[in-house]
Each structure stands twice: as structure tokens, then as C-alpha cells.
Amino acid sequence: MPDLDPVIHAQARLRIVAALATLEKDDQITFPRLQEVLDMTAGNLSTHLRKLEDADYVAVEKTHKGRTPVTYIALTTKGSRAFEDYTAQLRALLGGTT
Questions:
Q1: CA 86 to each of CA 35, 66, 73: distance values in angstroms, whole numbers, following the listed order
Q2: H or E stretch including 28?
Q3: 3-class secondary structure for the chain?
Q4: CA–CA gap between residue 12 and residue 14 (Å, rounded)
Q5: Angle between helices 42-54 and 11-21 (to 10 degrees)
Q6: From CA 72, how far away is CA 61, in angstroms rounded?
Q7: How far is residue 52's CA from residue 16's CA, in Å, rounded to a whole number?
Q8: Is residue 51 within 8 Å of 7, Cβ to Cβ?
Q9: Residue 57, helix vs strand vs coil
């Protein structure tokens, strides 16, 4: 039986990674937009993003647009690969093909 990645396996983090995986390669999303898409509180999203960032699964870029701070989030190559591996392991666990 394959071991599912514990970083991704938490429901909130799985939702985050799945949402980020829908972006085009090298694309990113703003924090408020991701919060809106996932219907998560800012604190909850921040907490889970920190765990994903610590695992190098997401990149968080803080910048300014004019004088307004903006935070961009993107899935890293490592994060994309981890999500692909996770979904393949899940399919294998459920009896599908990998």
C-alpha cells in the first residue's frame, strides 16, 4: 500500500494544491483570489500555505502593486510533482492504474 504524502493529505492543503495545479505552468494567483476560490479564512489559508511553503511545494511572493502589498502564490515544480505522485498513489490505492 503506497504512503500518501502527509503534507498534501490534509484536506485544506489538498484543496490548495489542487487549486494551484489548475493554473498554467509559471502562473500564480493572488492570496485574496485563492482565499475566495477556496472559501477559507485568511488565517486558515496562511497556516496551510506556510506548511506547503516549508515543504517547498508552493512559492509565496510578497510584493507591491503601487503602494498596495500583494501576495502571489504558485505551485513549485516540486509541489507539482508531489501532487502528481499523490494522485497516482491515490488511484493505485483505489484500484486504478498509476
A1: 23, 39, 20
A2: none
A3: CCCCCHHHHCHHHHHHHHHHHCCCCCCCEEHHHHHHHHCCCHHHHHHHHHHHHHCCCEEEEEEEECCEEEEEEEECHHHHHHHHHHHHHHHHHCCCCC
A4: 5
A5: 80
A6: 5
A7: 9
A8: yes
A9: coil
**Can you name the residues that pair with 69 across neighbouring β-strands?**
64
pLDDT in tens, 33-88: 999 999 999 999 999 999 999 999 999 999 998 999 999 999 999 999 999 999 99
Q: Which residue has the cell 475566495?
A: 36
Cβ burial of 41 (10 Å; 0-12, 13-18, 19+) is exposed
Q: What's the CA gap between 38 and 79, in Å, rounded?
A: 18
